Amino acid sequence: MRVAVVENMRNTGLGALARALEEAEAEIEWFRVWRDGNLPQDIAGHDALVVLGGEQSALDDETHPYLPELVRLTRRFGDAGKAVLGICLGSQVLARAYGADNLLGAAREFGWHSIGVTGEGRSDPLLTDVGDQFTIFQWHADTFSLPEGAVCLATSPVAENQAFRIGRAVYGTQFHFEADTEVVGQWKGEFPGTIERIAPGWLENYDELAARHGGAADAAGLAIARAWVSLIERQEAGLLSQATA
């Protein structure tokens, strides 16, 4: 299983998703576009694509000139029937790729928050193991409209479209399900100035908040990670299925 991971910002971290991919013995190839702008040249070399978060918006083409190519790449993977996962900024890029609107500064959230699962989400493979609602980590200011043909899987009062699916296995999650307590602790140490500016007092209350919410969020995040990884189809298996159909 070969998975391309696009890192839009230094030291983003895979967290729970890393564990799920390791359990599946996946081979991960990193594309650190924040450093060199390089992306996969085609889709044939990977069975799945992951696009992680970042501080830029999905429309910041001028300052991040690789973004239009990334938008096209996510669509090519999705149209080929391959598994695609966009997290936070990645979900916004995915929404753009499928013709939705990016809504800049319209949904500011930070910290652990409760997410409601929609009726469609309760029967979707991604969220079947998290119940009617779950607690997960959020860090975003932007959001998006629902792409045409997409199914809304999760919602919250701040961001109506917290998770969506297009086709078989193209998923966007506004929330950071991959951000387990280890990743959140790393972010706390790496970005204290930014966190204090957007969430005054959060750092001071971190230990209490982590104790209250971290365990449940870690469990939900790992369940979601494992569910998405289970949807990745190896290219060889897909070719065999087509040959015998």
UniProtKB/TrEMBL annotation:
Glutamine amidotransferase domain ranges (all copies): 16-181
Gene3D superfamilies the record matches: 3.40.50.880
Recorded superkingdom: Bacteria
The keyword Transit peptide is annotated on this UniProt entry: no
InterPro entries: ChyE-like (IPR044992), Class_I_gatase-like (IPR029062), GATASE (IPR017926)
Keywords: Glutamine amidotransferase
One Pfam family per UniProt: GATase
PANTHER family xrefs: GLUTAMINE AMIDOTRANSFERASE YLR126C-RELATED (PTHR42695)
Protein name stated in the entry: Type 1 glutamine amidotransferase
